[in-house]
Specification:
single chain; 2 domains; elongated
Length: 143
């Protein structure tokens, strides 16, 4: 950090230190104990493609670490992940979001496991979006 010191005729004890706004912010951040965190790219939306699930979950883990959610924050993690679900994955979450089905999970690990189980199971069965929703609804009602 290079600061400008003006002395123009003043004695050295009267020198004025001139800082730009970024330098001031850095000083305030370091004095307040604030650490500078890297900004992570937000994860992409997930559409239910089985071959992309692992990579998408890895993107979420990196994002959660960057925002300070590596421990706890289960509800925030689930809500954020849910907001990124589209197409087949969005169809899967819809009955839960509409509170027609009670979730079988109560934490992030349970949500992740259920998503993985559903995506792998539905892809092996070759189900369409509508069939997936009907199957999930029937399965929840029978429990």
């Amino acid at each position: 950090m290079a600061a400008t010191v003006e002395q123009g005729g003043a004695t050295s004890s009267e020198a004025t230190l001139i800082l730009n706004p970024e330098q001031m912010r850095q000083i305030i951040a370091s004095l307040s104990g604030e650490s500078r965190k890297p900004k992570a790219k937000e994860p992409e939306v997930y559409r239910g493609e089985r071959h992309k699930l692992r990579g998408w979950l890895a993107q979420l883990i990196v994002y959660y670490r960057t925002v300070g959610w590596q421990n706890g924050h289960d509800e925030e993690k689930i809500l954020y992940a849910t907001s990124l679900l589209r197409d087949d994955a969005g169809t899967w979450i819809t009955p839960y979001a509409q509170e027609r089905i009670t979730p079988t999970w109560d934490n992030w690990a349970g949500f992740k496991a259920e998503l993985q189980r559903t995506i792998w199971h539905n892809r092996r069965q070759g189900r369409s979006k509508d069939q997936t929703e009907k199957h999930e609804t029937r399965q929840a009602i029978s429990h």
